[in-house]
């Protein structure tokens, strides 16, 4: 029997609650599909700042490096908001992504039929939407140097550098084309090549890589147009490949097609150990209240099985279980419509576990 070592980083806010539900489902899937999960917890984000004084202690990095996969809840909260930049919880997240070389962030935005009416957009616009955003995660303006705040000519200036090496663009484009081959064979590359030099290089390199993928249709969009097209006609997209900052923004936008940020999973791969986290944040306002939607975390567990542990059957079974509970009318508060029974975080987890049987 395969046994997998998972380093679990519950983090802050609703992180621990949704992680508990995801683990519940992983154990249930293990029983059904014949693998076992061994977990080790580690600190990140605000929880790490409180306990160890830094957002990403070295011991956490070590525990992550020796795992088969890393599962993360969410980080951040008002308590740590006023700390200097490099001491904030968010810094821990950026550092662990970098430390694991998890450069390819896969963020699917799929509209489940049962949730079509939970979106603020018209049903005919969102029904059937199935997009995969491939976001470059360890480069671009998030990490570019120089960056800082200083005085120039008597004025305070703030600056960051959006920089991509050819190699970084090549490898993320490769991931996008490979993903498209498993889907509908279309890639849209998103940048701002009409203004930014870094985007001109991005377009040039993606175009070059596409020569190795003649079976995949490549198109290019400027990011402002892409933001508009996502709302106007999201069904035109299959795979979207883009840089770190644009991917951050567009993935939040795409989440709203699906009704709730509480539905979206993600996988960050490319290095030796993958990092798996729901797209949503720590939702401090509902933390500890057993109200959070655990479905993003549960869907993230499915992505971990697929992209981190090669347990494809179990991954598909979890996704089917999510679909089933949604079809059965199970809702958490964020996706509830009038008249629906609202389940708590743990009840939703129980329902998915039961549906897996
Ligand atoms: C995300 C988040 C993070 C990001 C923050 C919390 C650093 O918004 O995962 O999308 O910007 O990457
Ligand atoms: Mg974000």
Secondary structure elements and their pairing?
Layout (H helix, E strand, L loop, with lengths): L1 E10 L3 H19 L1 E7 L3 H8 L5 H8 L3 E6 L14 H11 L4 E7 L12 H4 L3 E7 L11 E5 L2 E5 L6 H16 L4 E6 L5 H14 L6 E6 H10 L6 E4 L1 H12 L11 E3 L4 E3 L18 H14 L3 H16 L17 H12 L1
Parallel strand pairs: 1-2, 1-3, 3-12, 5-10, 8-9, 8-10
Antiparallel strand pairs: 4-5, 4-11, 6-7, 11-12
Helix pairs in contact: 1-10, 1-11, 1-12, 2-4, 6-7, 8-9, 10-11, 11-12
Bound molecules: 3-isopropylmalic acid and magnesium ion.
The site of 3-isopropylmalic acid has 4 residues, from helix 4.
CATH architecture of the largest domain: 3-Layer(aba) Sandwich
The CATH topology of the largest domain, please? Answer: Isopropylmalate Dehydrogenase
The coarse silhouette is: globular
CATH homologous superfamily title of the largest domain:
Isopropylmalate Dehydrogenase
Number of strands: 12
- Cα-atom Rg, whole angstroms? 20 Å
Bound molecules: 3-isopropylmalic acid, magnesium ion
Mean pLDDT: 96
Oligomer: single chain
Strand percentage:
15-25%
Number of helices: 12
- SSE string, helix = H, strand = E? EHEHHEHEHEEEHEHEHEHEEHHH
Structural class: alpha/beta
Helix fraction, binned, reads: 40-55%
Parts with pLDDT < 50 across at least 5 consecutive residues: none
Give the terminus-to-terminus CA distance.
19 Å
Strand order within the widest beta sheet: 2-1-3-12-11-4-5-10-8-9
In this structure, how is the largest beta sheet organized? 10 strands, mixed
């Amino acid at each position: 029997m395969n046994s997998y070592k998972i380093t679990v980083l519950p983090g802050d806010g609703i992180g621990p609650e949704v992680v508990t539900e995801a683990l519940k489902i992983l154990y249930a899937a293990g029983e059904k599909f014949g693998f076992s999960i061994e977990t080790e917890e580690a600190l990140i984000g605000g929880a790490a700042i409180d306990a160890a004084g830094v957002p990403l202690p070295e011991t956490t990095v070590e525990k992550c490096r020796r795992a088969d996969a890393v599962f993360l809840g969410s980080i951040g909260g008002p308590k740590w908001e006023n700390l200097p930049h490099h001491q904030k919880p968010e810094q821990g997240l950026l550092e662990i992504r970098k430390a694991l070389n998890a450069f390819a962030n896969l963020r699917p935005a799929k509209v489940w039929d049962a949730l079509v009416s939970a979106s603020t957009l018209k049903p005919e616009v969102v029904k059937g939407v199935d997009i995969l955003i491939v976001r470059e995660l360890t480069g671009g303006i998030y990490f570019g140097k120089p960056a800082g705040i200083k005085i120039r000519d008597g004025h305070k200036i703030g600056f960051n550098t959006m920089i991509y090496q050819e190699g970084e663009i090549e490898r993320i484009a490769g991931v996008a084309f490979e993903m498209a081959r498993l889907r509908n064979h279309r890639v849209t590359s998103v940048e701002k090549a009409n203004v930014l030099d870094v985007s001109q290089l991005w377009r040039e390199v993606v175009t070059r890589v596409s020569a190795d993928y003649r079976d995949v249709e490549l198109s290019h969009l400027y990011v402002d147009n892409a933001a508009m097209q996502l709302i106007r006609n999201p069904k035109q997209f299959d795979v979207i490949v883009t840089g770190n900052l644009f991917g951050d923004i567009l993935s939040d936008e795409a989440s709203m097609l699906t009704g709730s940020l509480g539905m979206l999973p993600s996988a960050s791969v490319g290095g030796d150990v993958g990092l798996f986290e729901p797209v949503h944040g720590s939702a401090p306002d509902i933390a500890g209240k057993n109200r959070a939607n655990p479905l993003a975390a549960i869907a993230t567990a499915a992505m971990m099985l697929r992209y981190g542990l090669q347990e494809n059957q179990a991954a598909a079974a979890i996704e089917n279980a999510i679909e089933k509970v949604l079809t059965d009318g199970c809702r958490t508060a964020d996706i509830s419509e009038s008249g629906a029974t609202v389940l708590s975080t743990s009840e939703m987890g129980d329902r998915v576990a039961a549906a897996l049987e």
